[in-house]
Inverse folding.
């Protein structure tokens, strides 16, 4: 018997023989990389991927770098990739780089170079980690005579820093976001407002500024200040304090608010990435028709504090650190699109685009391929279906994509791109603005790999070529052979692809660290699972090994990818993957259910939709409202009330035959668990309910306060079991699937209706017509009278109780769920009330109730690193004995590399600070931090009163479904 393929270690979609040195072609063999000896200095899924790709390329002498966080600080978080490693001499250690000061970073760089030189490595691969975009690190590697598998230091300088990239984009005539990219220079000019004073600074500080530049009187003061700042960075000097920078940013923000009314402003540290080092301010101005000077001043007042936050987050608070912060207009209705680039310093090619608009906290969640071929095919399908508005909208996207790809290639050539990078843009209807370039491989790079491969052809022989399907492989080839590589042609591979980031977050998408994964189901066919090696079994026992989700790293656990013949198919397959993924453990929380609900929301609406970056928060708010209303439904009470309703109804129709009422009661009893088990599952998880409602939005109608069915509810019930991955499986635990007797009953019903529909010539969608035919006493469809009577009786029995499923739709109606929708032109309509900040905060607490606490305590909202002040040397947020107001900052919690300011949920007096330890102490979720006296006393709600309220709400909902 053939053994099943291990789709984690031997997946045909991502694993293949890449040994060019074994080709029959001499020309192809000349591009072998078996002599490359790279040191992998990143962590996460990209480290495991690099190990796999290098081995497939025949590279046997590679090493990996571990820090103390990989093994010591977080027990059970030891790099799981080591399970496939049998040579400990290639495992090296160095203190952690990500949180180091400037001096420590320099020391780490030299340590890494020394490790490489001492152990015979000739290249460094940094993936998408902190070092991948560190110009100084890349330069250090290059100076040591090592190859850097990624863009060179010159490209990093021109494209990697957000301010320089923006200047380059302007030079090559690429549209950029309105804003200011030199606020540090403006800060210096504010402090030294004349050329004479600036020149005096050069002399006093002994700065190495080119004398010709200093003598150029045509050079603006700001450009001169930029030259002086560059010299300061080289010598580790500061010309201004962070407070002075914050004051200048505040001044510039005020000016931007005045120039762009009813807009917000985004602050971006130039060294940020992956959502780090970015903050948005000005939300209070969005709804104001005409903001006053006072309104604008109030909106800008938090700018200095936010500047400190972004600089702290990217570790740029040290002396001589480049503290420049971009101040940009926040394009409100924007989509986030990006173009994959690859170059060798002379040529630059694009590999289509990716839509990354579905994100939160600047962290991408769902990434979808966008290709010219895919859009052209979608336009043709829309036109064939008579969807003119959709076809027009897609045609606009196609034109924008063509422009973005052309501009991206031009930008890549302008900066001499010699590896993989990403050209990131924001799209506003028929316009786009360049945002930044990520001078590294992206987390979501496989989305592009699935859509295109690269064909490298011998310039002397068109029949002599090799194909590359991996960007990591392409980067290694470029590092080893650079300009020898001819310009490749991109070859379409699969028409569509999608990636969901499986993150350690709770139901509100807030980071949730510290849990231990004890079980993870195996990948299914067509699934790509990129994790850090967590799914690698114990090499001795073949058993899954537990893994601790450590809070020091990014919240990402894995990347789940699928492909399809078109976007809908890729979504559908992703839905299947998410449905069949089982991940269990101790205190483990992920966004798996969120993704499943969201993917199915789009499948039920239109997968070609154009959501903006403002989609997720109001969507979560709506899901919170679903949970709030779902919590008011008592299915047991509803079932009993339905039985009473049927008893009255049957008794009225058969006053002389009490046996009929008893028979109907028995029929309903047999359906109790069949109906309520999947309903309870949907009511317990609003993310699942959201996806389910979207899929079935056209299966019912509410008229005159009464619900009617457009499809057979038993068919919907069967689909619900499949949606919840609860379909019958004799090998699965009973708790996880439909029970056997319920399965038998449902299967019998499906066979019955299939036969009747066939005899009556009706389709599955014609339930209303079927119901009307079966209501007729005269035999139909060629049946004799006796058979017809039995059919009608069976129909009555099978359909009895179907109404209960309709309770789920009453919840949707109550929260106006379907008002959040995709329009014919693919724009997403978001009801205005879902943008209400207070409602968003309240629904976040509904999705994830705050930790249980005493009335006189404030506890940690999550695990992480606790800070009681904004930055070292700054005053503490709160002191013992002080009164605090609702919304006032209390402390900062650092989780998964993100700094989260926690504000007071109510007003009160702080009696005692009980958190032990200094700044940077590790706290657990629910740990008491402060003893307080609230201004208002908390009143406990009587459980009996809650039960009474649930029954009342359930009874009210039943009015719409019981007839």
């Amino acid at each position: 018997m053939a053994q099943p393929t291990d789709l984690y270690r031997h997946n045909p979609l991502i694993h293949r023989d890449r040994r060019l040195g074994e080709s029959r072609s001499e020309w192809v063999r000349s591009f072998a990389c078996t002599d490359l000896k790279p040191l992998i200095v990143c962590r996460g899924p990209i480290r495991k991927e690099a190990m796999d790709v290098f081995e497939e390329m025949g590279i046997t002498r590679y090493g990996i770098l571990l820090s103390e966080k990989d093994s010591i600080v977080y027990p059970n978080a030891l790099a799981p990739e080591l399970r496939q490693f049998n040579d400990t001499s290639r495992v090296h250690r160095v203190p952690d780089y990500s949180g180091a000061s400037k001096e420590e970073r320099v020391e780490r760089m030299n340590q890494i170079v020394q490790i490489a030189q001492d152990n015979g490595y000739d290249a460094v691969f940094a993936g998408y980690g902190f070092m991948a975009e560190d110009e100084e690190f890349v330069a250090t590697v290059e100076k040591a005579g090592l190859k850097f598998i990624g863009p060179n230091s010159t490209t990093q300088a021109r494209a990697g820093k957000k301010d320089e990239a923006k200047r380059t984009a302007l030079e090559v005539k690429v549209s950029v976001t309105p804003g200011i990219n030199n606020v540090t220079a403006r800060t210096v000019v504010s402090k030294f407002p004349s050329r004479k004073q600036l020149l005096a600074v050069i002399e006093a500080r002994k700065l190495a500024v080119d004398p010709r530049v200093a003598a150029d009187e045509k050079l603006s003061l700001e450009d001169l200040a930029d030259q002086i700042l560059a010299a300061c960075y080289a010598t580790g000097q500061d010309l201004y304090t962070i407070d002075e920078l914050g004051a200048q940013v505040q001044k510039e923000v005020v000016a931007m608010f005045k120039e762009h009314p009813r807009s917000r402003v985004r602050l971006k540290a130039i060294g940020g990435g992956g959502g780090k080092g970015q903050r948005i301010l000005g939300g209070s101005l969005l709804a104001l028709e005409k903001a006053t000077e006072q309104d604008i001043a109030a909106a800008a007042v938090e700018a200095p504090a936010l500047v400190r936050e972004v600089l702290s987050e990217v570790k740029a608070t040290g002396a001589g650190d480049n503290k420049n912060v971009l101040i940009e207009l926040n394009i409100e209705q924007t989509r986030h699109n990006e173009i994959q680039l690859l170059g060798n310093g002379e040529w630059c090619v694009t590999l289509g685009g990716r839509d990354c608009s579905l994100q939160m906290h600047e962290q991408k969640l769902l990434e979808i391929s966008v290709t010219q071929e895919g859009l052209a095919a979608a336009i043709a399908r829309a036109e064939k279906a008579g969807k003119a508005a959709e076809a027009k909208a897609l045609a606009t996207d196609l034109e924008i994509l063509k422009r973005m790809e052309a501009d991206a290639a031009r930008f890549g050539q302008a900066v001499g791109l010699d590896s993989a990078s990403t050209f990131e843009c924001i799209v506003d209807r028929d316009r786009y603005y360049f945002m930044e370039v990520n001078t590294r491989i992206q987390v979501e790079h496989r989305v592009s790999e699935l859509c295109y491969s690269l064909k490298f052809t011998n310039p002397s022989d068109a029949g002599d070529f090799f194909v590359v399907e991996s960007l990591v492989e392409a980067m290694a080839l470029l590092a080893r052979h650079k300009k020898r590589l001819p310009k490749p042609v991109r070859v379409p591979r699969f028409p569509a692809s999608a990636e969901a980031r499986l993150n350690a977050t709770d139901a509100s998408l807030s980071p949730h660290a510290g849990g231990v994964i004890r079980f993870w189901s195996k990948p299914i066919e067509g699934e790509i699972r990129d994790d850090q090696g967590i799914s690698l079994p114990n090499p001795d026992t073949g058993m899954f090994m537990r893994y601790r989700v450590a809070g020091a790293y990014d919240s990402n656990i894995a990347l789940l990818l699928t492909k399809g013949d078109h976007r809908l198919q890729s979504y559908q397959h992703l839905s299947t993957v998410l449905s069949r993924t089982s991940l269990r453990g101790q205190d483990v929380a992920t966004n798996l259910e969120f993704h499943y609900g969201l993917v199915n929301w789009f499948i039920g609406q239109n997968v070609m939709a154009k959501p903006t970056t403002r989609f997720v928060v109001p969507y979560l708010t709506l899901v919170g409202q679903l949970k709030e209303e779902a919590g008011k439904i008592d299915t047991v009470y509803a079932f009993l009330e339905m039985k009473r309703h049927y008893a009255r109804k049957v008794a009225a129709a058969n006053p002389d035959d009490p046996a009929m009422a008893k028979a109907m009661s028995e029929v309903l009893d047999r359906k109790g668990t069949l109906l309520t088990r999947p309903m309870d599952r949907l009511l317990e998880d609003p993310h699942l309910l959201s996806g389910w409602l979207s899929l079935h939005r056209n299966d019912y109608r509410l008229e005159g306060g009464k619900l009617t069915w457009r499809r057979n509810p038993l068919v919907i019930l069967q689909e619900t079991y499949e949606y919840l991955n609860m379909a019958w499986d004799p090998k699965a635990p009973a708790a996880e699937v439909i029970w056997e007797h319920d399965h038998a009953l449902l299967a019998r019903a499906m066979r019955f209706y299939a036969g009747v529909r066939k005899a009556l010539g009706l389709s599955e969608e014609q339930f209303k017509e079927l119901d009307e035919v079966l209501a007729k006493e005269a035999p139909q469809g060629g049946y004799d009278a006796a058979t017809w009577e039995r059919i009608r009786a069976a129909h009555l029995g099978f359909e009895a109780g179907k109404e209960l499923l309709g309770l789920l739709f009453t919840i949707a109606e109550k929260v106006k769920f379907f008002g959040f929708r995709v329009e014919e032109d693919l724009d997403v309509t978001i009801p205005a009330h879902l943008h209400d900040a207070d409602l968003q905060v309240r629904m976040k607490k509904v999705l994830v109730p705050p930790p249980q606490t005493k009335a006189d305590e404030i506890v940690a909202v999550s695990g992480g690193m606790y800070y009681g002040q904004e930055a070292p040397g700054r005053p503490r947020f709160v002191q013992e004995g002080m009164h605090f107001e609702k919304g006032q900052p209390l402390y900062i919690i650092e989780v998964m590399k993100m700094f989260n300011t926690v504000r007071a949920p109510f007003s009160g007096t702080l009696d005692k600070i009980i958190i032990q330890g200094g700044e940077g102490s590790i706290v657990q979720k629910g740990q008491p931090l402060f003893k307080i006296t609230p201004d208002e006393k908390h009143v406990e709600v009587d459980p009996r009163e809650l039960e009474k309220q649930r029954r009342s709400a359930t009874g009210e909902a039943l009015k719409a479904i019981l007839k």
User: Anything to note?
Assistant: The first strand starts at residue 38 and ends at 40. The CA atoms of residues 334 and 428 lie 5 Å apart. The chain has a mean pLDDT of 90.
